Amino acid sequence: MTIPSVTYKQFGETVVPVAPVGTKRWIVLYIMVSAILLTTLACWNNLSGGSLIEMFEDDSDAPPPHTEYAKMARYLVHKAEWVSMGSLSTVDAIKGFPMVNIISVADSARGEKSTGTLYFYLTMLDYTAQDLDRDNRLTVMLTLDQDLYCTRNGIDPMEPTCARIMVSGRADKIENGTAEYAFGSRAMFSRHPAAQKWIQTDGHNFFLCKLNITQIAVLDFYGGPHYVTMADYLAADPDKRSKAASSSNTSERQIPPRFSTTEGTTATP
């Protein structure tokens, strides 16, 4: 067994504590290096247009590549909480004119898988329901900027790169008591709790509808809209992300010359 040695100080001897060598110096140096690194990081991110910070952001809810038109349409429909709904007016002074309204929608309950079908409540007290009762054809528009995605990323909502879709079809009333009515109502209540009060208010007589799609037009890049077939639309899964298409892919729309940002060069039309 080894007995540890112990050093005893002599009686009356004062023990002076010895400070670690260079402790303050190392603290000052650490602060200086940290400040330099943070400043460099901020400058680098500013010069790269924020791309450095974007590397660390969660892109699980990022929109799909603009070349995947069907997936973009499904993505916007699934995210939508409301749409701009256009109908043909039945008001005498503007009969036959286009009329637009804001209508709350849901394609599934919040957090659940996309269905691609827009459900919404209408009441005959509102002019949209009156229009659709006469002619149930309608068009809805959805934009990527509904949650200010474009605005936050410095893209004007009117720019083609701020994706939008125009979905045309007919409004179909869903009969109460069916499985689809239960699904659509639950989806609406999940995203729009106020809807429960709408249907309980005497005299308003809200009824559930869905959009039976005829055509889908997607505008998410320069070069004009792209039309998505119903087969492609229903087959697309917005919950699955895929890698952006290569710039060499011939199916990718090119930037027209008038939108070229490189002086002295033109893009393929």
Detail the topology: elements first, then pairings.
Blueprint: H1 23-47, H2 51-54, H3 69-79, E1 82-88, E2 98-104, E3 119-122, H4 127-134, E4 137-143, H5 149-152, E5 164-173, H6 179-191, H7 195-200, E6 207-219, E7 226-228, H8 230-235
Antiparallel strand pairs: 1-2, 1-4, 3-6, 4-5, 5-6, 6-7
Structure report:
The protein is of the alpha+beta class. It has a domain at 78-235: Electron Transport, Fmn-binding Protein, Chain A (Pnp Oxidase, Chain A, Roll), CATH 2.30.110. The chain has eight helices and seven strands; from the N terminus they run H-H-H-E-E-E-H-E-H-E-H-H-E-E-H. Strands 1, 2, 3, 4, 5, 6 and 7 form a seven-stranded antiparallel β-sheet that branches. A hairpin with a 6-residue loop joins strand 6 (207-219) and strand 7 (226-228). The termini are far apart. The chain crosses the membrane at residues 27-47.
- What is the distance, rounded to the nearest whole angstrom, between the alpha carbons of the first and last residues? 89 Å
- Which percent range fits the helix content? 25-40%
Supply the number of helical segments. Answer: 8
Q: What structural class should be given to the helix and strand makeup?
A: alpha+beta
Summarize the structure.
This protein has 269 residues and is of the alpha+beta class. It is built from 8 helices and 7 strands, in the order αααβββαβαβααββα.
Give descriptors for this structure.
269 residues; alpha+beta; Pnp Oxidase, Chain A; 7-stranded antiparallel beta sheet; elongated; disordered C terminus
